[in-house]
Each structure stands twice: as structure tokens, then as C-alpha cells.
Design goal:
Keywords: Membrane, Repeat. One of its GO terms (biological process) is phosphatidylinositol biosynthetic process. Belongs to the VAC14 family. InterPro entries: ARM-like, ARM-type_fold, HEAT_type_2, Vac14, VAC14_Fig4p-bd. Among the domains are: 172 residues, Leucine-rich Repeat Variant (Alpha Horseshoe), CATH 1.25.10; 31 residues. The chain has 36 helices and no strands. By secondary structure, the protein is mainly α. The radius of gyration is 46 Å and the shape is rod-shaped.
């Protein structure tokens, strides 16, 4: 720096001292400047003050020489001290040169610039807020400075600025500050993150500053910071978010929650478990705070809760799952207040449930997800059908086929909930008028699945049918199954299916009411039910015999067995499957279901048709365990009653010969069994032809 230039009002000695590399000499020059400025201020000599500001601000602070810059910076601070309360009149000329040097390449210059701005701000106080945006930008940059001394100096300045803002919050430009915050909140630097969070914390603690109003603009950045691997950052950010949540609880009406909901839903998918948990907690609180206003976002929230609910049952994820379940149940409760009128949907779109989006989510999640999620989806569909039966009706074409497909899912609890939903849909009490259509569609689909997947029928058939009979009227289920199976073209499947239905009918608690009705065929409606079942049960001879034994129609049993014996002797078609079915029936005769039949063997006179029926079964069986079991039972009948004559029909407990057209029933049995015989012959013939063709091809 040339000493020949005029630096008035500075003396040559003061100029040399300011340029000196020794701090003490620069400090002495600064004291001289402070004294000089006090004298100028006392006589209101603003011209000299401005001239001195120009010398220090331009000639010194903007110099290329580092020591000269340091002299200029300490001189500017001295001027502020000398000016005292008059600093406000010269704040621009004092602050701007210092701000430039805060970004200097020389770390010592940055250090002295921080110190200088600290001293100026300490004097000027609220006057520096005019330059707060530039000061904040510089502080943000200095927080990441590689030199610890510079960082220490900037931290002192930072604390002072926070005090000034807090003390002068009434004039602080919060609106202008938010863009600065938003620009820097996505920083990747750990120290810069601490700096940003500390400012948010300070401002939020000031009663007169409503920072929560601007939460939608910075919430995304805060959640991003929450995923920082540094524990201290996580802790600070978590504290800030909790404080904001408390503010929202006190004044939920102040904030535009719509953008925030979308933000927290996005972060509920985070791979960081703590971020995911925090986001789910926020969603739960938002539902509590805003209630039905959240309904337009129900589909996104539902999807998020299901994603979190699918987490593994490990300790770190348990609380996420628990919160997700709370979100799910709370959201489900909101549905209870939704109006179930199709014409009211468009009335107030902003506060209405977007049912179409919810259904889309449910369908997608049901199609491919975890067991727990599938169960949740099915409970949702059931809940919607319970509270919005009219509005959900328009989506049935998409939902119902998927429900039918889910019946084959290899988990009992899923199938149980699926059947519960299906039962709700096809129940006569359902709101829709075409429930019969869905009822028939369900029965047909069930039969089709059983026909295509015999393993499903074998492993899950009884479970599914028992469950649906427990949920709906078992009479309707069996009547409809019987009607469709009577026309079944796959006779082998029809026989197997009737065998399954017969076993359920004879053994399941869910069919108790139907069993009781069938034993009381004196009533017209019960006779009609028996005839409906009998016509179809004829697909399976053993099942038909069991049905007649259940209804105590022993006369018909005898006639069936006579016909049965004829076919056995004529075709010699005694299969292992048939013998197994007879074996099972004999075992069932020893069960509590048939205790009334066994007690009838003690009646006097004994029903000879019953005796003949039991002996007829005995003659079919080889001398197996079942054979000896039934033979032993028959030996228990008192001999005096075995040969007693059958009394006149008017003394028989139930005169089935008059109640039913036995001849027509036997003809139907014979016709259907002839169809089965031809069906088996055709299959065997086709198999032999296929083998012959295959043999020719090989040759």
C-alpha cells in the first residue's frame, strides 16, 4: 500500500500501524480511530466520518494485501464503537466491506472479518437486520469453514445474531428469511445442517415469530435431515420436528396441511427406520388433528400404512408396524362418517373420500403382498362394504373376481377374512339388489376352482365350505351347490364334490341346523330341501345312502342298496374309492351324529328296513375293520327283535313311502348312475386309444 497517497483524516503513523503485520500495532491504530470518530460524532462532522469510512472500507478492506485488509476490518469495528448509537446512520458503509471479506481466501482475513462484524453488530444491534440475508449466507458458509479458529469466531457472531433477531423479532423479516432457509436446508454438510437446525430452533422458540406457518416449505428438508447418519443431527432434527408437532396441535388451523401430508407420506417409505417411524407418527397425528379433512388423501395414507405394516417383526421395526396399524385403524374410523350417497360425491370434493383411489390401492395390495397386508386389505373392503355399500357397488366388477381368486391363497386366516367379505357381499341383507347374481357367481367360481385344483378341494375344501356356511344360511349354500352340481358335466368331479359336501353335512357344527331340519321331513320345506339334495347326492351312491340314513328314510336306503348291488354285480365296478367311502360311512355310524340311529336298534319292534340297510352295507364291505365294527354293532341287537315282523305302515314313525315318490327317486338314481358308468367307460376307452396312438408314434 503506497504511503504517498492521502488517507486523511488518518495520520501517516496510523496508516502505517494499520498496515503492520503485528496485531498489537493494528489494535493501537484502531483505538486512535475510535477516539477520532468519537470527536467527529460529538461535533456532527459526518463528512469526515464518511471520508474515513471510504478510506477504511475501500482503500484498506478491499486491498490485495492481507495485512491491509486486517487493518481496514479492525478500523471499521473501531469506527462502530466510536459512533455508538449513531452507527445506524452509517451501517451500509460499515457492513458491506466486512461482508465481502467474510468470503476471503485468506483464513486470517475471514477470522478478522468475523470479529469485525461481531463488534459492529454488537453496537448496531437491530440496525444490522437490514443486511441479515447477506450475513446469514456468510454465516452458513463459515459454519463449514475448514479452519477451527474461523469457525469459533463465526459461532460467536452467530450467537450474537440470534440474540439480535430474538430481541427484535417484531421487525425481523421472516418472509424474506424463509427462502434463505429453504435454499440451505438440503445441504449435505453436517456442520451446515447443525447451523440450519439451530436457527430453526431459535426462531421457533420466539413467541412473536410464527415459524410454524412456513412449516410446509421446510418440512421436506427437515425430514431429509432426519435421515442423516450423524446421531447429533438426528437428535436435533427430531427435537425440532417434535416442537413443530406441538405447535400444530395448538394451532392446526394456521397451517396449510395439504402439502405436508404428501411430504410425510413420501418419507414413510424411507429406508431409514427412524425416519419411517417419525413419518408414520406424523400421519397419525395429522389424522387426529384434521379428521375428515384428511379423507382426500386416504389412498396415499392407506398405501403408506400398508407398506410400513409389511415390515418384519424385528425389534427395530415393531414400533413402525404398531404405528402403521394405529394409522390404519384411525383412518378406517373416519370412513364411518362418510356419506353413502352417490349423488353427494361431487358436492364438496375437497372434503370427500376419493373412493376410486382407495379401491385401486386395495386391489393392488390384495393382488400381491404379505399375509398381514392381505388381511388388512380384506378388513378394509369389509369395512367399506359395511359403511359405504352403495358407493362401493360400482367397483364390484373389479373387486369380486379378485376376492374369488383369493380363496385359493394358502393361508387360512386370509381365506377366512376373504370369505367374510364375500359373505357380506352376497348376503341377502346387502344393500345392492343383485346380490343373488354375486351369490351364484361365488358358488360357480368356487366349484370351478375346486374342479380345476383338486388339491385345493382336498386340502381346503371343507374349511372353505364350513366357513361360508357359518357366515351365511347353510340351507342357501347347500341348495345352490346342489342345483349347480346336478348339471355338472364332469361327473367324476361331481361325485367327489358331493362326497365332500356330504362329509361336512354329517360332521360339521356349522351344519347342525340343516341336519336337524333334514331329520324332520314331515314339514314341507324340509322335504323340499331333502329332495333337492337327494337329486344331486345321487352322483355319489354312498353319499345318497348317508343322506337317507340321516333323514331316517330306511326304506329308501334299502331300495338304493338293492340297486347299488345290481350295478356292482353287473359291471364289477367296485373301486377302492367306493370301498373307502363305505368304510367312512360305517365309521360315521358310530359317531354322535347317528346316536339316534343306534338307539332305534333297541326299539320294539325294530325297524326291519334299518336292519336290512345296515346288513346291505355290511355285504358290500370285505372283512375289514369297518366290516367287523358294523357286524359287532348288529350283534348287539336283541335276538327277539331281529325276527319280529314289521308293523303296519300306520305304526311306523315316519311313512316315507307316502311322503315321497320313491319310484321316481330310484329312477333318477338309476339314470344318474348309468351316466356315471358310461362316463367312466368313455374315459377308459379314450385312455386306451391315446396309449395305442402313442405306441404307433414310437414305432
Amino acid at each position: 500500500m503506497s504511503m504517498d497517497r492521502d488517507y486523511a483524516p488518518l495520520s501517516a503513523a496510523c496508516v502505517r500501524a494499520l498496515n503492520d503485520k503485528m496485531y498489537d500495532k493494528r489494535k493501537a491504530a484502531a483505538l486512535e480511530i475510535e477516539k477520532m470518530v468519537k470527536e467527529f460524532a460529538a461535533v456532527h462532522n459526518s463528512m469526515q466520518i464518511r471520508r474515513l469510512l471510504k478510506v477504511l472500507g475501500s482503500d484498506f478492506s478491499m486491498s490485495k494485501n492481507a495485512n491491509t485488509k486486517k487493518g481496514g476490518l479492525i478500523g471499521l469495528a473501531a469506527m462502530a464503537v466510536g459512533l455508538g448509537k449513531d452507527t445506524v446512520n452509517y451501517i451500509d458503509d460499515l457492513i458491506i466491506p466486512i461482508l465481502v471479506n467474510l468470503n476471503d481466501a485468506d483464513l486470517k482475513v475471514r477470522y478478522y472479518a468475523s470479529e469485525s462484524l461481531y463488534n459492529v453488530s454488537k453496537v448496531a444491534r437491530s440496525a444490522v437486520l437490514k443486511h441479515f440475508p447477506d450475513i446469514f449466507k456468510s454465516l452458513s458458509k463459515l459454519s463449514t469453514d475448514p479452519d477451527q479458529n474461523v469457525k469459533n469466531a463465526s459461532e460467536l457472531l452467530d450467537r450474537l445474531m440470534k440474540d439480535i433477531v430474538t430481541d427484535n423479532s417484531n421487525i425481523f423479516d421472516l418472509v424474506g428469511f424463509i427462502p434463505l432457509l429453504r435454499e440451505r436446508i438440503y445441504t449435505e454438510n453436517t456442520f451446515a445442517k447443525q447451523f440450519i437446525i439451530s436457527w430453526i430452533t431459535v426462531l421457533d422458540d420466539v413467541p412473536s415469530i410464527d415459524l410454524v406457518i412456513y412449516l410446509p416449505e421446510i418440512l421436506d428438508g427437515l425430514f431429509k435431515m432426519l435421515s442423516d447418519p450423524t446421531f447429533e443431527i438426528k437428535k436435533m432434527c427430531d427435537a425440532v420436528l417434535k416442537k413443530f408437532l406441538d405447535d400444530l396441535h395448538r394451532h392446526p388451523e394456521k397451517v396449510d396441511y395439504t402439502d405436508m401430508i404428501n411430504t410425510i407420506v413420501i418419507y414413510s417409505y424411507s429406508t431409514d427406520e427412524f425416519v419411517q417411524y417419525t413419518a408414520m407418527c406424523w400421519i397419525k397425528e395429522f389424522i387426529d388433528m384434521y379428521g375428515s379433512n384428511i379423507l382426500p388423501f386416504a389412498s396415499n395414507i392407506l398405501k403408506a400404512s400398508m407398506a410400513s405394516n409389511s415390515n418384519q417383526d424385528i425389534e427395530s421395526q415393531i414400533r413402525i408396524k404398531q404405528t402403521a396399524k394405529l394409522v390404519n385403524s384411525t383412518l378406517m374410523e373416519l370412513i364411518n362418517g362418510v356419506e353413502d350417497k352417490i349423488d353427494a360425491i361431487e358436492k364438496d370434493e375437497g372434503k370427500n373420500l376419493d373412493l376410486a383411489s382407495v379401491i385401486t390401492v386395495l386391489i393392488k395390495e390384495l393382488g400381491g403382498s404379505t399375509i398381514e397386508t392381505k388381511i388388512t386389505v380384506l378388513k378394509w373392503i369389509y369395512h367399506l362394504f359395511t359403511h359405504l355399500p352403495n358407493r362401493i357397488l360400482m367397483y364390484m366388477e373389479s373387486i369380486f373376481p379378485l376376492l374369488l381368486t383369493t380363496l385359493s391363497y394358502p393361508n387360512e386366516e386370509v381365506v377366512q377374512n376373504d370369505l367374510k367379505v364375500i359373505a357380506k357381499i352376497i348376503s341377502p341383507s346387502a344393500a345392492q339388489t343383485n346380490n343373488k347374481q354375486y351369490f351364484d357367481q361365488f358358488i360357480l367360481s368356487l366349484l370351478k376352482q375346486f374342479s380345476c385344483d383338486r388339491t385345493l378341494l382336498k386340502d381346503r375344501g371343507q374349511f372353505i365350505i364350513r366357513q361360508i356356511c357359518g357366515l351365511l344360511n347353510s340351507n342357501d349354500i347347500y341348495r345352490t351347490l346342489s342345483t349347480f352340481l346336478l348339471e355338472e358335466n364332469n361327473l367324476k368331479f361331481a361325485s367327489v364334490m358331493i362326497g365332500t359336501l356330504n362329509t361336512i353335512l354329517l360332521t360339521s357344527p356349522e351344519l347342525y341346523h340343516l341336519r336337524t331340519q333334514l331329520r324332520d321331513v314331515e314339514k314341507q320345506e324340509n322335504r323340499e330341501m331333502f329332495l333337492c339334495l337327494f337329486r344331486t347326492w345321487c352322483h355319489n351312491p354312498v353319499a345318497a345312502v348317508a343322506l337317507c340314513l340321516l333323514t331316517q328314510n330306511y326304506f329308501l336306503v334299502c331300495k338304493l342298496l338293492q340297486t347299488f348291488h345290481y350295478y356292482i354285480s353287473a359291471s364289477m365296478d367296485v373301486t377302492i374309492d367306493l370301498l373307502i367311502e363305505v368304510d367312512k360311512l360305517i365309521q360315521l355310524l358310530e359317531s354322535p351324529i347317528f346316536i339316534y340311529l343306534r338307539m332305534e336298534l333297541l326299539e320294539e319292534p325294530v325297524n326291519q328296513y334299518l336292519i336290512k340297510a345296515l346288513y346291505g352295507l355290511l355285504m358290500i364291505m370285505p372283512q375289514s375293520d369297518a366290516f367287523h365294527l358294523l357286524r359287532h354293532r348288529l350283534k348287539c341287537i336283541p335276538h327277539s327283535r331281529m325276527g319280529s315282523e314289521m308293523p303296519a305302515s300306520e305304526n311306523v314313525k315316519k311313512d316315507f313311502k307316502e311322503m315321497f315318490d320313491t319310484s321316481t327317486m330310484l329312477n333318477h338314481f338309476t339314470t344318474l348312475q348309468e351316466k356315471h358308468r358310461n362316463y367312466r367307460m368313455n374315459i377308459n376307452s379314450n385312455q386306451q386309444i391315446d396309449k395305442a396312438i402313442a405306441k404307433i408314434d414310437i414305432q
